[in-house]
Design a protein that fits this description.
Length: 324
Amino acid sequence: MIYKYCGNSGIQLPVLSLGLWHNFGSVDNFDVATQMILKAFDAGICHFDLANNYGPKPGSAESNFGKILKDNLASHRDEMFISSKAGHNMWPGVYGDGSSRKNLVASCNQSLKRTGLEYFDIFYSHRYDGVTPVEETMQALIDIVRQGKALYVGISKYPPHLQQKCYDILKEAKVPCLLSQYRCSMLDPKAQKENFQVAAANGSGVICFSPLAQGLLTGKYDNGIPEGSRAARSTGFLQTSQVTPERVEAVKKLAVIAKRRSQSIAQMALAWILADKRVTSCIIGTSSVAQLENNLGTLDNLSFSDEEMKEINAIISDPQLWFD
């Protein structure tokens, strides 16, 4: 495994981190989830990314992770970097959603209970809700650290103008933002163009999620929408309407370059994100040990020639390919 420092800090993360957004909830196979987490840890992936609403059912990914940790990795807690987040809808009523102090503090307490942890290594504000003053949200994160419930704080998906304000508030309180989490892929480069530099200029690390565009950048949809895939589910984050002919054609062209590099399209897509020096780590989501092993193969070839980058950029530069 390769490790990189998070911005201006002494914390190192593996360049590939394991996310538990999908495939680790109460509806998923617990034995497979256990195998993936153990395989990831054995391969040097020491960072595990959670959120209070991950499931389904919401909260169940944290509960399952807590069980796996207790039964298999309890003695290795200090070798692990575990994150969680709050800010999306979690429980009924007016306090179970959003970026308020009430929601963040209650969510952190609940997440610690579900995972069985004494503290999180990093706790994020999962989103800006469009209503709560940033000062309130950041103060909640600051107090969570001062109460010993998290060692570090982070922000996720904040727009650039508020991103800077968050950094300023946290820096003044001497609880700097360790990581900024953004969605990014070859088909979704907006954060790379807008948010990465703001983070880098403020000494924050950058960690990316959905690097394979919810599976589009695996070639899975090259010949239609397979039964059981994310796009085939009515509740999935990848909708049928997003699997456009233009995106499928772009993926096929990218796969030709990947083949020349002796990589799968997924491996090249991960390597492309990691080629940005501002990126600390890329969060991978896997449904099997075999898929995890394929993603780990990314590390065998992380470099790109100027000609390869030029060819790739020519394919993905059309804004109609980008996700909203």
